[in-house]
Amino acid sequence: DWLPFVLALPALTPLIYRNAYDYYYPFILGPVAIMVALFHEKHRALALKTGKSLGASVLPIMLVVQCGLGLVHVWRNLPDDIAPQRTVLAAVHAVFPQPVPYIDGYGVVATYPRHGLFMSSWGMATYHKAGQPVFADLVARTQPPLLLADSVALYDAMMPDVSVAIPELILLPEDAAFLQANYLPHGGMLFVAGKRLNASATTFDIAVAGAYRLESAAPMVIDGQSVQDGDVVTLASGRHRLDATAAAQGATLRWADARPSPDDTIGILEFFAAGK
Question: Which pLDDT belongs to residue 21?
Answer without folding.
Answer: 66
